[in-house]
Amino acid sequence: MSNAGSGTIGAKKEAQDNERVSLGSKRVIWERVFYAFALSGPYCSYERYGQLVLAQTTTLALLRALLTAHTELQGALPNSTFAEALADTSLNLHQSLIQDDNAEIASSFAKARVGGSPYGRGEYFAALKNRDFFGIGDTLGLLLASLSDEIDYNTISAEEFGEIARTSSWNLLAGHYHREEFLKGMEEAESRGLPITSPDNSKLLLLKYFSKRKYWSFWREWYQGFLDGNPMDRELQRRVALIEDPIWESGPGAVAKEIERIRAEYLLEKVPLAEKVEFNPKTAKFFVTPIEVEKPDLLGATLAQVEDALEDVLASASNGLHDNAREVRALRRVFTKYGNNPQQIEMGFVGVHKGLVRQILNDELPPSEENLALQDALEEGARAIRATHPDVAENRKILTEQAIRELPEGAKEQLEEALPILVEISEFELAEEWQHDIPQLINDATLPLPSGAPPLPGADETTRIFSRAAKIALHLKIKDVVNRITESTTVKAGALILLIEQLVKLGLSLF
After folding, report:
1. Per-residue pLDDT tens for 320-361?
2. Which residues contact 426 (CB under 8 A, 6 or more apart)?
3. In angstroms, how far is the first alpha carbon of the chain from the final one?
4. For 216-226, what is each residue's pLDDT tens digit?
5. Which among 334, 356, 388 is the end of a domain?
6. Which of 388, 414, 439 is the C-terminal boundary of a domain?
7. Would you say residue 226 lies in a domain?
């Protein structure tokens, strides 16, 4: 290799190393600001200024900046849309710091206009005693400026912004008036096996602030995820960062509604079903409409083939299945209720096929000719449906790639409480399916498997429950739908919206 070639490779490697160091440094800056804001909340600690609190618009701007910066630091997709979001976030934060909060803390922020830029304010805040209150936003502004190519202040480079942010962030956290108490609380929580966000740790003032209004619930969950070592889904964070400026400018309530819409649509991508959930204004209830059957004759023949194979199995007790077996009941339901619903038929066939394979492998059922013939008929039937219904085939591909997690603590009770309300707002057939799927999901997710493996929710029941909940969540964005339900049922509007929001959150935690 020539010296020139060797030098090029060496220079490239050095540039990559420098880039990694720079990225690591910026992540440390972000963490310092994140923890400083968790400890301070939007409150002023400096006695001279009394019990001042940042305006909600400024608090929201800080949260937006934290989320957007984190998304960029984790490797957001390099596109112009996100670059614009980063620049818009920086501008929004800058405006909030020098304009929106003047009514509440004018005397302090009058001095903060030094130079009219984060650079000038950064030097001012570096020496300010109560920098833990006023310096958080400016340090974030400096970090955003170091991340974006679209932000320019008087020819100051991104590297210079990053260096100022590094110094400022160190001062923020190292001298924070709650730092020592917080570290002590962390040690105590760890020794007792509790998360650091447990109620016992009273030094997280931001979490206390979030508890005052429902529209801060997403931000509490987002913050708590990092603090407890279980960060929120990265793609969900990216989508929130891309919320458009007019919604951010409308305040935390508008942002909260948009986040719930984003969550519902994101969940639908994870648990697709080739069906529509529609609202009947006459009955004030929801119902399901299946997709159109592409080849009715083929579908009818497929059902008949599986039904014949099932009858052959049941003709001999030695095959191990009986009329009350779960697999038999599932297929009976397919034959009698879902004859015109390709999605439900395919899911039913796949679910029973998996059950048969598992039981035969575990010697719970004999590998008899009839059992194997039923297994083959189910597999061929599911393939035939996917071959003639592309939406069903695509959904199966997505579901196959998904890994369903265990039900989190409290989910069983949450589902049990949701069931009667879901039944009340659903027409007969959908109500029956809630009554089947929710108990089945709870049963699958709580009873141990014969193999000793951890119990997991059934894929098809889980998909139906949370796909339908997400579709209902989108319907509830229409005020007339909510009003019609509350007029015709005993369900309260607030309770219904909260219930469906919680189900969407639970669904996203499983997929």
Report:
1. 999 888 889 889 888 888 877 888 888 889 888 888 888 888
2. 285, 286, 287, 434
3. 50
4. 999 999 998 88
5. 388
6. 388
7. yes
How far apart are alpha carbons 381 and 360 in whole angstroms?
A: 20
Quick one: 286 and 307 in the same domain?
A: no
Binning pLDDT at 50, 70 and 90, where does residue 500 land? Answer: very high
Q: Are residues 199 and 304 located together in one domain of the fold?
A: no
**Distance (Å, rounded) from C-alpha 110 to C-alpha 231?**
37
Whether residue 244 is found in the same domain as residue 131: yes
Helix (H) or strand (E) holding 207: helix 205-210
Cα gap 402→390, rounded to integer Å: 19
Measured over all CA atoms, what is the biggest interatomic distance in the chain, rounded to whole angstroms? 89
Model confidence at 40, in pLDDT bands (50, 70, 90)? confident
Is 211 found in the same domain as 65? yes
Parallel/antiparallel/unpaired status of strands 275-280 and 285-290: antiparallel
Element (H, E) at 288: strand 285-290
pTM assigned to the model: 0.76
Q: Are residues 230 and 128 in the same domain?
A: yes
Q: In this structure, what token pair is assigned to residue 386? A: 């996917």
